UniProtKB/TrEMBL annotation:
Protein name as annotated: Glutamine--fructose-6-phosphate transaminase
Annotated GO biological process: carbohydrate derivative metabolic process
Keywords: Repeat
Lineage: Bacteria, Bacillati, Actinomycetota, Actinomycetes, Streptosporangiales
Domain SIS intervals: 26-171, 194-334
Entry's Gene Ontology molecular function annotations: carbohydrate derivative binding
Domain of life: Bacteria
Length: 344
């Protein structure tokens, strides 16, 4: 049986190509709209919040702009007015219909921010209607509750946004993403071994750092949503400050890394520490050196660190879908979840 989630994972190369084709020609427009601003504020919840973490790291490390994550309750519950002059407020919502996110973006505009919507909900969605600039992704309809193609296309939109505000990157790296994702879908690595290693576990720690931290958070969320695992997503810097005590023979670690970059050596060292403590460690990406330090490994994309998260989550999505089926769970309709979540 092919699940909707598995089918939508397979649709990601086409969705990414369509999204990049639609948004890359708008780089100059993005630059003009963002010109009066000096820092970014990302507004999101759930999977979109994990995408926002990628956006934050990307603009700070490659565009030289301060960025932060909004607390929507400041706008919706406390109703406090802030001075957001010089701020580019970027709201992310797959549906474009999450009322809290729409309300917070409106609030940001009223506080003086230039507003941007990133959504798969189309230009007529409430979020798009509230924004000064709309970046619509081209994922098509997503039916499975766990987000896959709407997540990766949101990352693509944020990468284009970063280029528009002056990120010092090679744009050809972004154009290679769909092919890299296609390759990972065809060959994710030792998927069966990782599925079997997690099948009898109640919990898992998922860790990465820097630009890859967003992927750790997203994979942990997917394992919670679709496999009902107690999955903890952490930066490895935070993990080493105490929570590493939970990693033991009954609680393995999934460690994520780009093929290069300044955080990879620390990830390899963490894998060696986890294995040295008698626990299992599984790699996603990180090249041969990380794979050699772990129990089993999933492949990572052949992409530089700044765009690696667009591909790195894909083996994690495949792992989630396969593990859910192994556990007798329908990953398309996890218990207690709906496609559009409303918060007060």
């Amino acid at each position: 049986m092919t699940t909707r989630m598995r089918s939508e994972i397979a649709e990601q190369p086409a969705a990414l190509r369509a999204t990049l084709d639609a948004l890359l020609p708008r780089v100059e427009e993005i630059g003009r709209v963002a010109a009066p601003t000096r820092q970014l504020l990302f507004i999101a919840r759930g999977t979109s919040d994990n995408a926002a973490v990628y956006g934050r790291y990307l603009v700070e490390t490659h565009a030289g702009r301060l960025a932060s994550l909004a607390a929507p309750s400041v706008a919706t519950a406390y109703r406090r007015k802030l001075d957001l002059g010089g701020v580019l407020a970027v709201a992310l919502s797959q549906s474009g219909r999450t009322e809290e996110i729409v309300e917070t973006l409106v609030w940001a505009g009223e506080c003086g921010a230039v507003t941007v919507a990133v959504t798969n909900g189309g230009p007529d969605s409430p979020l798009a209607q509230a924004a000064d600039l709309v970046l619509c992704t081209e994922a098509g309809e997503e039916l499975a509750v766990p987000a896959t193609k709407t997540y990766t296309t949101a990352l693509a939109a944020l990468a284009v946004l970063a280029v528009g505000i002056g990120a010092e990157v090679n744009i050809d790296d972004l154009r290679r993403v769909p092919d890299a994702v296609e390759k990972l879908i065809d060959d994710p690595g030792d998927l069966d071994a990782v599925v079997e290693g997690l099948a009898g576990r109640q919990g898992v720690v998922v860790s990465g750092r820097g630009l890859v931290f967003s992927t750790a958070l997203e994979l942990a969320l997917k394992l919670k949503e679709a496999c009902y695992l107690h999955a903890m997503g952490l930066s490895y810097a935070d993990l080493l400050h105490g929570p590493i005590a939970v990693v033991d023979r009954d609680t393995p670690a999934i460690l994520l890394g780009a093929g290069g970059g300044p955080t990879l050596p620390g990830t390899i060292a963490l894998a060696e520490r986890v294995r040295g403590a008698g626990a299992e460690a599984y790699a996603v990406g990180g090249g041969q050196e990380l794979a050699a330090a772990t129990t089993a490994a999933l492949n990572g994309p052949d992409l530089p660190e700044w765009v690696a998260p667009l591909g790195l989550i894909v083996p994690g999505q495949l792992l989630t879908e396969a593990l859910a089926r192994r556990l007798g769970i329908d990953p398309d309709t996890p218990r207690g979840l709906r496609k559009v979540t409303q918060t007060d």
